[in-house]
């Protein structure tokens, strides 16, 4: 239970009623001890899982720094944890995001890139849209020479239901500017991602 979860809020009361209805639909006895507080716990958990609806991820990119000695090469934050939920089945998909950009006079705090990923991931999503939203936000706010977003995830809707292919991974990417138009920049990006993994 989160501290700010209000059991008396009308919207929360209505939502908890829906959770009880789903439990009954599954065949459960909603009055047994183990499930008495489950509706409230589910709502509190959903507040965490879908906190991205309460923010504009672009705001994390507003504060930038120009005193970087003219740095104009790749900035890469790799292996950012991704925890999201498929909008088709509302089950998790999890994995890693690699986010890079080439500055055009301004850089942003490194943690802000991870916050942008979280802001879009903590919503009902499809991986393709998530990839585009992250890249578009960085491109729009920072106006860099190029942006690259590569996401690799396992989807529970594919691993644990349906075709049940538990070892399958889905990779999506969005490249803009120099990363898209310059093969050497693209190769450098892929080498840096590979180098980062080999150092662990």
Automatic annotation (TrEMBL):
<dbReference type="Pfam" id="PF01227">
    <property type="entry name" value="GTP_cyclohydroI"/>
</dbReference>
<dbReference type="InterPro" id="IPR018234">
    <property type="entry name" value="GTP_CycHdrlase_I_CS"/>
</dbReference>
<feature type="binding site">
    <location>
        <position position="86"/>
    </location>
    <ligand>
        <name>Zn(2+)</name>
    </ligand>
</feature>
<dbReference type="InterPro" id="IPR020602">
    <property type="entry name" value="GTP_CycHdrlase_I_dom"/>
</dbReference>
<feature type="domain" description="GTP cyclohydrolase I">
    <location>
        <begin position="17"/>
        <end position="193"/>
    </location>
</feature>
<dbReference type="GO" id="GO:0008270">
    <property type="term" value="F:zinc ion binding"/>
</dbReference>
<feature type="binding site">
    <location>
        <position position="89"/>
    </location>
    <ligand>
        <name>Zn(2+)</name>
    </ligand>
</feature>
<dbReference type="GO" id="GO:0006729">
    <property type="term" value="P:tetrahydrobiopterin biosynthetic process"/>
</dbReference>
<dbReference type="InterPro" id="IPR001474">
    <property type="entry name" value="GTP_CycHdrlase_I"/>
</dbReference>
<dbReference type="GO" id="GO:0003934">
    <property type="term" value="F:GTP cyclohydrolase I activity"/>
</dbReference>
<keyword id="KW-0547">Nucleotide-binding</keyword>
<keyword id="KW-0342">GTP-binding</keyword>
<feature type="binding site">
    <location>
        <position position="157"/>
    </location>
    <ligand>
        <name>Zn(2+)</name>
    </ligand>
</feature>
<dbReference type="GO" id="GO:0005525">
    <property type="term" value="F:GTP binding"/>
</dbReference>
<dbReference type="GO" id="GO:0006730">
    <property type="term" value="P:one-carbon metabolic process"/>
</dbReference>
<comment type="subunit">
    <text>Homopolymer.</text>
</comment>
<keyword id="KW-0862">Zinc</keyword>
<dbReference type="GO" id="GO:0005737">
    <property type="term" value="C:cytoplasm"/>
</dbReference>
<dbReference type="GO" id="GO:0046654">
    <property type="term" value="P:tetrahydrofolate biosynthetic process"/>
</dbReference>
<keyword id="KW-0378">Hydrolase</keyword>
<dbReference type="InterPro" id="IPR043133">
    <property type="entry name" value="GTP-CH-I_C/QueF"/>
</dbReference>
<keyword id="KW-0479">Metal-binding</keyword>
<protein>
    <recommendedName>
        <fullName>GTP cyclohydrolase 1</fullName>
        <ecNumber>3.5.4.16</ecNumber>
    </recommendedName>
</protein>
<dbReference type="InterPro" id="IPR043134">
    <property type="entry name" value="GTP-CH-I_N"/>
</dbReference>
<comment type="pathway">
    <text>Cofactor biosynthesis; 7,8-dihydroneopterin triphosphate biosynthesis; 7,8-dihydroneopterin triphosphate from GTP: step 1/1.</text>
</comment>
<keyword id="KW-0554">One-carbon metabolism</keyword>
<comment type="similarity">
    <text>Belongs to the GTP cyclohydrolase I family.</text>
</comment>
